[in-house]
Amino acid sequence: MGSSKEPDTDRHGCPRHHGIGVSPGLAAGPVKRVFPRVREPRARFLPPERNVADEAERIRQCAADTAQNLELRASLASGQGAEVLATAAQIAADPTLIDGACELVHTRSLVPARAVWEAAGMLADQLKDMGGYMAERALDVYDVRDRIIARLLGRPAPGLPTPDREHVLWARDLAPSDTAQLDITKVKAIILAEGGPTSHTAIVARELGIPAVVAAPTTAKLRDDDVVLVNGAAGTVTVSPTADQLAHAARPIPERTFSGRGQLACGTHIPLLANISDAAGASAAAEAGAEGIGLLRTELWFLGTTSEPSVEEQTRHFVDVFDKAPAGRIVVRALDAGSDKPMAYLPTGTEANPALGMRGYRMSRLYPDVLARQLEAIAAARQETGADVWVMAPMISTLEECEEFVTAAHAAGLEQAGLMIEVPAAALRAGQMLAAAQFASIGTNDLSQYAMAADRLQGALADLSDPWHPAVLDLISTAGKAGAQQARPVGVCGEAAADPALAVVLVGLGASTLSMTPRAIPDVAAVLAHVSLAQARELAGVALAATDAVQARTAVRDRMEFLTDLGL
Ligand code: PEP
Ligand code: MG
Question: Could you tell me whether strands 227-231 and 26-33 are parallel, antiparallel, or unpaired per DSSP bridges?
Fold first, then answer.
C-alpha cells in the first residue's frame, strides 16, 4: 500500500496511482493530455521602430476578441459551464487587466505578451490577497491571460484536445473555461495532477456525472493513449487494467433511488439528511426523499446582499425554505460569515489569517445583534410553519461559546440548540460541550482543515485536508464517543458524509445521522445497507489504524468488495 505520493499495484498486479476522488463512477479509456498553457514570455522590450500605441491597441483588440469568443461560448453552454465562461469573458473585458497591460507597453515598452503576463500577475495577486472565493478567481485570470497571449502570438488557445473518440482527459490543472467546454460525449473521466476537491473541475465533473480524480501528481507520467481505469470514488487511476476490470467498468449501473429510510444491514436506523442553502435545495431534498435537513447553510442567501435583511424578510425566507423542506428535522446553521464566506455588511478589518480569524460564531463578538435577529426570524418561521427546527452554531471553540449560543437559542424559544464540531478543540472537549447542548454536528470540511492545518481552498494541499486522515478520524471518534456517553445525537454534515465508503466509517465512529448533498443520498444508502453496525465499527478500526489518508481509504475500500458491484 503506498503513501499518498507513490503508486502501488492493485490486487490484479496493475500499477495504480492515487489522488482524491471528487466525482464518483468508474470509467476507462485511452489518456489524452491537455495542450499546455502558454510559457511565461521573456521580459523583452519593443524595438524603437515599433509604435507603442499600435502595440497597446493590439492588446485591446486581442482581449476584445477573446472576450467575444468566451461570450459566444457562454451563450452556447448551460448551467455552471455558462457561468464560468461568462466570468472569464468579464475578466477578458476588465479594464484593470487591459489598461494595466497597455500602461506597461506605454511606460516600459514591454512587448505585449509580457505586458499582459505581468498585468495579469498583479491582478491575480490582488485577488489572492482577498482570500476565499476571490482568491479562487485568480485561476480564471491566468486562464484569460493565456488566451490573450496565445492570440497575440498567433497560436491556438491552450486547452482541450479534441479527439473524435472517447478518452480520459489528463491535465496538470484545468482552467475553468476548459472545464466548461468538456464534450461529455467523449470525455469518460478526468484526471488532474493538481487541483482540489473545491476546484471548478471537481464541481463541474460532479454536475456532469463524469468520474474525476484530482491531486494525483504521479499521473503526470501518463502518456497519450495509455489505457487507464479511473475510479472517481476511490480516487485511483489504474494503468493497463485487466479485461475483467474493463468489462466491470463498462457495465451499466442501474439508476438508484432512495427508499426514504437510511438503514444498516442489521436494521439500525441512520437517518440520511440533506445539506441545502435555499428553498430550491429544500425542494431537491424533498424530491430525493431525504429524512430531513441536516444542514441549512444560511449565509449563501445573505452573501448576495449588501445590508442585513430585516427580521421580517429573514422570516419570509425561512418560511419559504421550511415549507419546501421534507418532513423531519430541519437543522439551521446560524450565519457562518467571515473567512471563505466574507459578507459585505459584516466587515472584519484586515486579517492576516482569515480562516483563523473572525468567522462563524466568533462574528458575534463584533455583531452580537445579528445572531439575535437571525434566531428571532428562525423562531418566527418555525412558529408559522410548525416545522421541527433545530439550530446550531458554526466554529465553536470553547465551552463558553457553546453555552452562550445555547442560552441565546433557548431565549429565542428554540429548544434544540447544538454546536458544529469543526475546530479540534470542540472535538476534544465534546463531552463537556454535549453536556451543555442538545446535539452536535461534525463539519468535516473545516475539521479536516484545522486538524491538518491545511487551507481547504488550496488545491495543492488537498492531500492534507482529507477527512480520511486518521488524525481527523481520531477527532471524530472522540466526538462520537462523547455523544454516546452524553446520550446526545452527533451527526456529520461535512462533505465526508457523501463519500459512501467513508460514510460507513463515520457510522462506525459513532455518527448517528449523515447529512449530504441530496444527490449523494441513494449511493450512501445503498452502501450502508450492506454493512451491520458491528462491521461498520470494525471498518472504522481499520481506518483508525492506518498511517495516512490514502492507506485508510484503500484499506477500508479493499474490504468492501461490493463497492465495485455498486459502481462506487
Ligand atoms: C464543514 O465545515 O464541514 C461544513 C459543513 O461547513 P462549511 O463547509 O459550510 O464550512
Ligand atoms: Mg464549516
Answer: antiparallel
**Of ligand 1's atoms, which has the minimum distance to the CA of residue 496?**
3
Report which ligand 1 atom has the smallest distance to the Cα of 275. 5
Q: Which residues line ligand 1 at a C-beta cut-off of 6 Å?
A: 295, 297, 336, 422, 443-446, 493-494
Q: Of the residues 336, 392, 445, 465, which should be mutated to test ligand 1's pocket, given the most ligand atoms within 8 Å of the CB?
A: 445
Three cell numbers, residue 161: 484536445
Look at residues 547, 511, 548, 507 and name the one whose alpha carbon lies nearest to residue 527: 507
3-state secondary structure of 4: coil
Return d(Cα 428, Cα 30) in angstroms, integer.
47
Distance spanning both ends of the chain, measured CA to CA: 20
Q: What does pTM read for this prediction?
A: 0.75
Cell triple for 367 = 455583531
Closest CA to ligand 1's atom 9: 297
What does 187-216 look like in DSSP terms, one character per residue?
A: EEEEEESS--TTSHHHHHHHHHT--EEES-
3-class DSSP assignment, residue 452? helix
Angle, CA of 377, 378 and 381, to the nearest 5°:
85
Output the nine-digit C-alpha cell for 391. 439550530
Separation CA 393–CA 337 (nearest Å)? 11
Q: State which ligand 1 atom lies nearest to the alpha carbon of 445.
A: 3
pLDDT per residue over 416-435, tens digit each? 999 999 999 999 999 999 99
Q: For 207, what's the count of Cα atoms within 13 Å in the CB-facing half-sphere?
A: 15
Question: What would the pLDDT profile of 328-359 be if each residue is shown by its tens digit?
Answer: 999 999 999 988 788 888 999 889 999 999 99
Span from the CA of 517 to the centroid of ligand 2 (angstroms): 15
Query: How many Å apart are CA 393 and CA 416, to the nearest integer?
Result: 12
> What is the distance in A from the centroid of ligand 2 to the CA of 500?
20
